[in-house]
Amino acid sequence: MQQPRHRIRRYRRPLALAGATALVIATMASASSTLPAAGRATAGPVAAPRGTGLGPCRIPASMGVQMSEGMPTPPGYARSTGQIKALNLMIDFPDAQATEPAADRLAEFFPQTSDWFRTSSYGRLTYVPEAPLEDWLRMPLPFAEYGIERGSPYEPGYRKLVKDLVAITDAKVDFAAYDLVNVLVTPNAGPSALDTVLSVTFSGNDDAPFADGVPLANTSFVYSRQDDGSGSYSETGYRVLPHENGHVFGLPDLYTMEGGGSVGHWDIMSEDWGANNDLLAWHKWKLGWLDNSQIRCAAMPGTTEHVLEPLASEGGTKLAFVPLSAQSGYAVEVRTPAGNDEAVCRPGVLIYKVSSDVDTGQGPVSVADSTEDSGGCTRRPNVHAELSDAPFEPGETFTDRPQGIRISVLAKDADGHYRVRITRP
Ligand SMILES: [Zn+2]
């Protein structure tokens, strides 16, 4: 049995809004922690790449990487297509007693979280939240005694918390009926999310306590309130939960110790504060929300042209991938202000490097900025500004000289489809 590894991520990214009444908000994406995989369910596309020509583009996970961008997602994570049932448990503590109804806490996350998954997955993931116990569950120990801090590993605090939770609920809840568990903690337990984000997910955890014959292998814990300071908490505050559940489906964190500077607001695994955002096309393919037929693999030497349709709309070709090695490549997709992407201020062709040998939180994805040092086009709170205008527009070319790669945006047609030319050695 492997010992779980974890990293403590502790950074503050103050974000000053323009004007005299500016709020300064320290933002931190939520933490993640993952543990050795179990063998229960598998996320991601099940179709074999055989015969599709996509083999070189399905870069596999590397040995020693805790949580990888590689395909396929290893076993043990929750299924990411079809209907999944989420058990929601609202908890408080003797030293942090809830001051509002448990139903209100649940309502901070639903139905928005289910809607978010329906939109992002083009209806392929039906997320059914259930809360069979309607009231707060009082934990037996004070919050402080579980010793939970940002970056806390599963042992010993979370194991104790989950065991206690099972002990007080098992007679009333059939844990085997659910694909994942959300523990929604009373917001007054622990520090404000403006200071420290405690929210965390333990995914693929076959060492978790069992209940009703199944390990509680995919559990997300949500603390405090991620209020982006714009007065729109009721619209944006739920977004920590789809981020945490992203880990349950096997997605790594895209923010790093330095913050959201490698991916910006282009994926909820990078930034889960502020305006709504979607997932990268790479993630949608990894989760099985895009078919193999919607992917173009530019693996052969020479020049190829591809017509890409906006990621937010259903159907059509969504992703061109240019493999560089067995563990990396460039992804090319079209992003527009539609669907879950509400903050896109420069629509166009987003180009990013995916590295399956780079671990969660270490920068497995990095977005190429078409307008470096521009300061970006957004002024929204908690949206990484510099990369907000990263997409390439018609007439612009991304070049990786050492690798001999050129990706040119040739044109955008009346339907909003983009023609892209890829040249590689
Ligand atoms: Zn995370």
Automatic annotation (TrEMBL):
Signal recorded as keyword: yes
Keywords per UniProt: Signal
Signal peptide as annotated in the record: 1-31
Name the record gives this protein: M6 family metalloprotease-like protein
Lineage, opening ranks: Bacteria, Bacillati, Actinomycetota, Actinomycetes, Kitasatosporales
Highest taxon listed in the record's lineage: Bacteria
